[in-house]
Amino acid sequence: MRHEEHEGRLATTNTKVTKGRTPRKLPPKLIGFRGVLPFVIFVAFVAIDVFVFSVAARAQNAPPPYTPPKLANGQPDIQGIWQVLDTAAWDLQDHGASLGVPAGRGVVVGNEIPYKPEALARKKENDAKRATLDPESKCYLSGVPRITFMPFPFQIVQQPDKVNILYEYNHTIRQIYMNGNPHPSGHIDWWMGDSRGRWEGNTLVVDSVDFGEETWFDRAGNYHSDELHVVERYTPITPYHMRYEVTIEDPKVFTRPWNMSAILYRRIDPNVELLEYECYAYQLEDQFTKK
Amino acid sequence: MNDRSNIGAAVLILLLPAVAGAQAIFNPKDWPEGKRGPGAHTWMAERAKLPSFTVPRTKDGQPDLQGRWGGTWSGDDIEEIPKFLDVTTPPWESWVSDPSDGKLPYQPWALAERVAHREGLGREVWSKDPTQHLYYDPQAFCMKSVPRYSQRGYELVQTADTVVMMLNWGHIYRIIPLDNAPRPSPAVRMWMGSARGHFEGDTLVIETTNLNGKMWLDSAGNFIGPNAKVTERIRLVSPNLLDYQATIEDPETFTRPFTLSAPQRRQGTGGGGANAARDPYAAESWEHACHEGNGEHEEQIKDLGFKWYLPPVPPRK
């Protein structure tokens, strides 16, 4: 699916002032024929003030509601090519720059990842030995949500009972089933997990389990166990942006569930399409051909 | 089948767990003398006898080719398998429909190259001597290309402006724009190439260029060059049967274009789908990680002296 202009629209801002400060009562002597104009101006200022205050308060709490275009089957249409612009591939948390690593604000809500003490030690060791321990160094499948944060585009293709996400990195596919089947029984070690989706309003909610222990969350050694449970929420907020929220649960590694929040950007560059990043093919060719 | 080729076949299977999975098993004792499995010519004869069929349309008015489709050929010698190689590889007709002799029309230099590829596989005289080996089948490294991807089954999905093919094998996919968007420069070389599609009547036509030439056509050393243009024609000829044709134009390597033809059957129909009614997950595509479990085999291939296959450079005219 190449980029198409979505005919989505920002919902009309509600301009009706429903509550606000009552204008203070003016002395009766001022309300003569000549006194009406100042009063009208005063009331108008109060109304504008209340309106501006109301809109500002709304903007602080939530973006204006956006209604995405719908597919023929009524599902929100989130198809297209998307990519993150943050630096979570390097580190999910706030981090300074170093050689080859751009500085960035993290995507972890509150910035703290609630590791158990022994798990935090393992995270630090992972980080110290990341050149050899990071599964990315072997070009393995990235896992979830790491694949989203890789600095490569991905394309969403919807079917009535399945959302497919095709990633340029390592030609990864996620097939998110919405066919009524629950997660299959028994633990299965999968690199990308087993994903089941549902729509909550305009939000695609994806519940994933059945992960192995081999994948990490980023290049800074943040990791999980095979008890990882990921819930992702993809919410279109403009024709060109989706809010991407992730809840991580893993009682083996973390003391409590924790959240990430990021933005996915629609790629609208001329001629944009997924190309290839065949990590392991390049690596194998290098290993086989180097003297 | 002598003992040495048995050992060779056993080692080949050992080296190719990801490739050899889910294939039919044939017992040489039950295989009639002179029998060939059905290839391109048998398929074309069957196709000619099919009653006319009105192809259903998608809501966008395209021929509806969507669904989960089984693969084409077995993966071994695309020209012909003259004798039993192992229990998964019985004698088989060529998949080449044109030229009619079923042979790939190699230029002399390219045929010599193909012969070298096959000898260097050590299939006939299996040896642990690394000097006996040249290249291993590039597919053993969990990669695919066009048209070899079609040898495995895939799910085909259509949107208004795109055809998507998703293989379970190795999570290989293709995204084929239908809007004739400008291709990347020839400097961009990709395993799966650059594909552009359009419909001609009921037929989906996909033209692929920008290949890298690093994948063989089969596991027996047949190859095309990086400048090949592959034109695939895919048509629904009955409710559960696709006609798949791939024409390859590669004047650097061949004396003329050639065409491969094969049927692709809708999965869950015919044989093998007996469990589908009972298993609600039968129509799901579960993860086939390939490279992640392949490290040991990659090391074995290296230890046996196999080199990384790079496309041969045609001689200067």
Concise synopsis of the structure shown:
The complex is a heterodimer of chains A (291) and B (317). With 291 residues, chain A is an alpha+beta fold.
Task: Describe the structure in your own words.
The complex is a heterodimer of chains A (291) and B (317). In chain A, the strands form 2 sheets. A 9-stranded antiparallel β-sheet of chain A has the order 6-5-4-3-11-10-9-8-7. Chain A has 5 helices and 11 strands. The model of chain A is unreliable at 1-35 and 55-59 (pLDDT under 50). With 291 residues, chain A is an alpha+beta fold. Helices cover 20% and strands 24% of the residues of chain A. Chain A starts with 8 loop residues before the first strand and ends with a helix. The relative contact order of chain A is 0.16. Chain A has helices at residues 36-61, 117-128, 130-133, 146-149, 279-289; strands at residues 9-10, 66-67, 80-84, 154-159, 162-167, 172-177, 194-200, 203-209, 229-238, 241-249, 258-266. Chain A folds into 2 domains: 1-67, no CATH class; 80-289, no CATH class. Helices cover 15% and strands 20% of the residues of chain B. Chain B has one domain: Beta Barrel (Lipocalin), CATH 2.40.128.20. Chain B has helices at residues 3-15, 17-20, 40-48, 108-121, 295-303; strands at residues 67-69, 96-98, 154-159, 162-167, 173-177, 194-200, 203-209, 229-238, 241-249, 258-265. A 6-stranded antiparallel β-sheet of chain B has the order 2-10-9-8-7-6. In chain B, a hairpin with a 5-residue loop joins strand 4 and strand 5 (173-177). The longest helix of chain B has 14 residues, at 108-121. The relative contact order of chain B is 0.18. Chain B has 317 residues and is α+β, with helices and mostly antiparallel strands. Chain A binds chain B through residues 1-2, 4, 72, 79, 138-141, 155, 157, 159, 164, 166, 171-173, 175, 177, 179, 181, 184, 190-192, 194, 214, 271, 273-276, 278, 280-281, 284-285, 287-289, and chain B through 59, 141-143, 157, 159, 161-162, 164, 166, 170-173, 175, 177, 179, 181-182, 184, 188, 190-192, 214, 280-281, 284-287, 289, 291-292, 295, 298, 302, 307-308, 310.
